[in-house]
Queue: 4 jobs
Job 1
Amino acid sequence: MKPFTLPQLPYAYDALEPFIDQETMTIHHQRHHQAYVDNLNAALEKSNETITDLDVLLQRISEYSPAVRNNGGGHYNHSLFWELLSPTPKRIPEGKLAEAIDTAFGSSENLKAEMKKAGLGQFGSGWVWLYVKFSGALAVSSTPNQDNPMMDIQSANRGFPILGIDVWEHAYYLAYQNKRADYIEAFWSVLDWSVVEKKYEEALSKIK
Ligand code: MN3
């Protein structure tokens, strides 16, 4: 049995151009994400695990093998990443999320600057996160490899991710080469804040 499957992209591979190019999107989705799904299914099968809830799996990831951690994280992180992107994004956060961003960071421009700094500071492959702490407050962190704030291997910086930027080179190298900063800047042009607002509400409901 294969409990996890590759989600369809909700837009065409070329829909995010010129900010994220068609070839990068195609390889990233069809090869990289597909490999995380296949390797996660194989790792769970090998250890006779029958878990099908990815959220629960990540929150107890310390009980699993490195293969489950890397590929379970890879599947979760990329599924979230595709959902956050849109060719017709809502360009600014509003409502409760906007208020919480202002409280935590002063402004959404400050939040973007903090995430860029975290992205440039993440040595090698990893992710930058805006997440909701268990206290309900917003925070920014970065994680190596395919880790994320939901995993119980995080000693600090734990919570529910609502916005993630993939800063692995496979996410940007074809178009941006070594210019990770330019890719992070371009990311904001295709980030749909309406999805982040929805994720924020969902995260708050899990805490209460
Ligand atoms: Mn990736």
Job 2
Amino acid sequence: MDRNTTERKSAWWYGRIAYQIYLKSFSDSNGDGIGDLRGVISRLDYLKDLGVDILWLSPCYPSPWADHGYDISDYYDIDPRYGTLSDMDELIAEAGKRGMRILLDLVANHCSDEHAWFRKACMDPEGRCGRYFYIEDIAPSGKLPCNHRSVFGGSVWEPLPGHPDKVYLHTFHKKQPDLNWENPEVRENIYRNAAWWLDRGIAGFRIDAVTYIKKELPFADEPADREDGLCYLGRSAESVEGLGVFLREMRDCVFVPAQAFTIGEVFNDQENELPLMIGEDGYFSSMFDFSHITFGMKRLGWYSWDRITTEDYKQCVMDAQRRAGKRRYLSNVIENHDRPRAANRYLPPEGRTEAGKKCLALAYFMLRGIPFIYQGQEIGMENYPFRSAAEFDDVTAIDEYRVSLAAGLGEDQALEISAGLSRDNARTPVQWDETENAGFTTGMPWLPVNPGYTRINVREQEERPDSLLNFYRAMASLRKEPKYFGTFAWGDFEPAWEDRGSLLAYHRKGERHLLVLANLKPEEESVLLPFRCQVLLNTAEGCRMENGRLFLAGWQGIVLELL
Ligand code: TEU
Ligand code: CA
């Protein structure tokens, strides 16, 4: 092992367990129907008991909420609906007392159109703030600078308010104008802000949409890939050169001096870029493995995407772990605020039971890297049963519903597809108990509670020893047992029985030799285990061993120590 690797292994975040809080839907302390910082503070003991070390909070800064906080109008404050800066200080301190550290969301590809910078840019596009954005002239013919389609649908160009001859660029919502990272003043502003938060005591950042900050210039048309005449903007983001220059600068100016933990939201991870992103000298401490999240995505829209099977899921994970190898540290997720619930995405209807959810949880939780739990995942929250497209809040679901209809799908089919992938599914309030509004608020929740809360809620699962919640707690404590900590944190990953379809199995080898098996299908499975072994964790009660053969029931998962 070289020196660098040894040094990196001493970083505090190795072997930790993280939890994502989507503040708006987590816990409401004052009855206005909106989750808030005091709500988080009131649940810190719950999170501690779950075994969480790192809390990532989705954006909590002042925002008009065109994209629920991913459109920031002031980088130096807390949105009053979430609380105050002193609530944040208290959260940092209270979390710290319990050995937990806070990550904030660094959203720097774009700000809000209500940020002072953009307001000034509209007043004087040629002036200082005008240069903070990508503002271009519309050609006399009316032609836009390029035909890229924004992530949320429609052109990336929007007329600049007050200037009918000009347009500005927005990769996402039109209320999220892209910041021009080529302008050193923009970068300085972002770095100064990040350092300011780190000084306040946060441990680091999850960095939003970070692969979009570098644009391929000059803007140019590409062949249209849909009938709208527009083209997917991701291609240029994937092939553009020079992203690393910005990322390196940000790392050296801000993250290294503060010893921050950073995790990049990197989608278009090219294999050759992995070492740069999270190698020994990487731009980030870690990055999410999104390989199974992006599986099956196609250019035409949600209606054209392939469904993922448990076998596909397994293959994605195996390949990603292999690519990451021994020197790079992934963060493993099955849910986040942009995705449907994992039970609905990864499990077939017959596997959407507590057994199936435990098996899937075990499969990803013991991988090499940092497991992230998304709020509500630990109790197995499921997708919202949408009855009509009018119930969508999510801008992407609304757009994709429209796209599906335009492609000729019937209303029912378009609804089914958009409902299945809507980001709303992950954003319904956390189901704390079976009282009204699931104990999330005493008021009117900003987004309806999933009616499944009477069946799936924290209170019920806290009391039931074999619940999913208690299984998550057991997984976390196993990873933390001093005997096994090192092996889970740094141990090598080696696939096992990789050719066995939906059996997701791997070795973790360090000071100890562990074997994780997750039988992600309804049928029984067996493997020959000519070792002496000890069961460390089991999703079910007991397991059958006969003549050196281990039998796993359908949806059974197990962690063994090989002796
Ligand atoms: O997401 C970035 C991203 O690329 C998303 O487009 C993702 O693929 C999409 O939401 C799926 O429908 C980040 C945030 O996680 C997301 O919530 C924000 O809306 C987006 O950036 C803009 O800030
Ligand atoms: Ca509130």
Job 3
Amino acid sequence: MINPLRGMKDLTFEESQRFEHIVNMASTIAKRYGYGYIETPILEETALFKRSVGESSDIVGKEMYQFIDKGDNDVCMRPEGTAGVVRAFISAKLDRQPVKQKFFYYGPMFRYEKPQKGRLREFHQFGCESFGEASVYEDFTMITMISQIFDALGIGYELKINSLGCVECMPPYRQNLVSFLSEINNELCEDCNRRIVTNPIRVLDCKNEKCQFHLVTSPKLLNNLCECCDSDFIELNKLLTKAGIKYTIDTNLVRGLDYYNKTAFEFVSNEIGAQSAIAGGGRYDKLVEFLDGKPTPAIGFALGIERIMELVKMPEIKREGYYMGAMVPEAIPALMTLAARKRLTDKVTVEFSSKGFKSHMKGVDKAYPQYAVLIGEDELKNGTLWVKNLETNEERTIAIDEF
Ligand code: HAM
């Protein structure tokens, strides 16, 4: 027997219904906020992810499903959705149009991580990317939208926010941080020591307790923001408070992808174990330009569908459509014609083997229909159908033409 690859899984039965519900709910809400559906290829040039997610990130450094294809191209299965959407935005020359563009997407992402609970090698994200809006109101609107999605799915969360500054305030802060880290480097883990050189900001979110202890006194970016970043961050705090969206400021929230600036946020759940991030995102105002497009401010987020799968409160299943069955084999062709007609508007389940009344009624709830429709010898002769409304238990015999 051939099994799925490690860290990859099939979505079947109950899980696929949960998946569908999450995607439908998130898409419905995203559309209300003006987002339109976008689909980009799963396979892209490796250079796209190296340049956007960043060579020093774990995603690019260790986790890419990267290979040389038959045409000698260096390609990669997307580890995340933002880079592809930004590439598509530039490819379609939308960066040259004055209109603001908003896209939502969902689909598989691939990261060669060590599989564990909440960490798959193929997982699915639902994400949104908004282009052309620099206002902090957009940051607030996106966070509001995500809260609304989680509320609609019945999922509790904690929201953490931070500001990562901009081209003006980040470089001097980084310098400052490197000086601090270089002085305590003997106390820090191997990963942190590597990151002091490759990406010092990422040292801040090291999970090692000893490192965190020594980082308590590190310089904080929030105390070193330029005027614009500072006033936007204060405004975002005010807007969230006014809207009643609970949050905490996490000065160590730096995100694992290099393209972010200014607002960064994460939604976490304390009900799913160590891999607790259920959604994350932030601004990436320089990425379009960095990938050779016209300078365009942007902000986005993605939520991990598998991570919220077991948290989602499923709506009550309602009886729907028809169960149709025959009690004599000669009635089956008539049943097929009726079913095809009814399926133009309704859900229909047809039982192909003819059987007795009791047998039909025993199996009818598997399909959870609203009506059971049966044809027996008498009905076939008289051109009628026996119909039972399974919600009200009302039974009727009607002419076939009335059905
Ligand atoms: P990310 O934080 O890397 O951000 O991923 C977003 C979410 O995907 C995480 O919060 C988590 O729920 C889920 N996730 C990540 N890795 C795994 C995994 N190995 N197994 C299961 N779930 C996982 C991004 O990907 C950015 N592109 C988000 C974004 C969009 N930023 C701006 N626009």
Job 4
Amino acid sequence: MPVINRIAEFHRDVTEWRRDIHAHPELLFDVHRTAALVAEKLKEFGVDEVVTGIGKTGVVGVIKGRKSGSGKTIGLRADMDALPIREIRDHPYKSKTDGVMHACGHDGHTAMLLGAARYLAETRNFDGTAVVIFQPAEEGGGGGREMVKEGMMERFGIDEVYGMHNSPGIPVGQFALRSGPTMAAADTFAIDIEGLGGHAARPQRCIDTTLVGAHIMTALQTVVSRNIDPVESAVVSVTTFQAGDTFNVIPQTARLTGTARTLSADARDLLEERMGEIVRHTAAAFGAKATLDYQRLYPVLSNHALQVEFAGSVAAQIVGDNVDMEMPPVMGGEDFAFMLEARPGAFINIGQGDTAYLHHPEYDFNDEIIPIGCSYWARLVETAMPAG
Ligand code: NI
């Protein structure tokens, strides 16, 4: 059974919504226009309850099946925010906001979940409750965490929760997922170094913070290569190094920032601990002082085995054998991890074909996959809670 016929019929409508959202990208929690559009559409579809302002600008819609009292409640989640990237392609629905674009396909995720909500509200061919979740601030703001913190799972009685992301490089008509750790814990760090500034021709009177920073930066790379178990996965990337303003002054201070990724809680603890030791002691070896400010952002996204089996079987209803149940984990982070900490569920990747990669200025969501994604959402609800 491939794409649902009724859903194929409104492919054009969903494409229009997608392109409208694409032309009006918004950042982090400031997704006011997008959230208003989502709420308006849900009401138009006859969704039973529409709640706005959850997790600042998140929107939740409740769709009751034929016997909503007796069945389960399944949450389906999409993200609404864009990225601070300048779009370089020149299609008719190009971003109208300079320097902001939908470079991760969240425009497509939002439109596909709206399409599924329209179908589910129209057909109600299930026995239970579907909760459609539209979250803000996936790209670094923790919008999913905010929604969970505000008690969304309890308030709507959500038993299981599912997420989906488009994936460039995976062919159209394919899905991929895995059980267990799937995406990395994504943390950030800042290292502040204090030395002794002075004349660059008299280094003996100074404590050179640029040299200390260089040693710290190099030593940090030994955490992954020498401390983390080689069969584990971890990344430490120093991405900025700021020090000094001119060529003949040794700067008093220097600052390094970067990101750290791990696929297990143990590796995450070890990495933070070792980074702290290296930062303090390397600086001390040169007579400088340095501090590590390590911020834990998103936890490891860990899929639950039972729900992965189920999600894979639903995807197979749409695309047959083209479901990879053992995709390799990736070191990118995902805010949906907070929802999977709160409830069992699964995060699936939907193939978007051979396009520019996520977060690239040439990226564009592939509208061809809309009926596949909408059908997956609809069948997930209908299969999890079959109408009696
Ligand atoms: Ni994304």
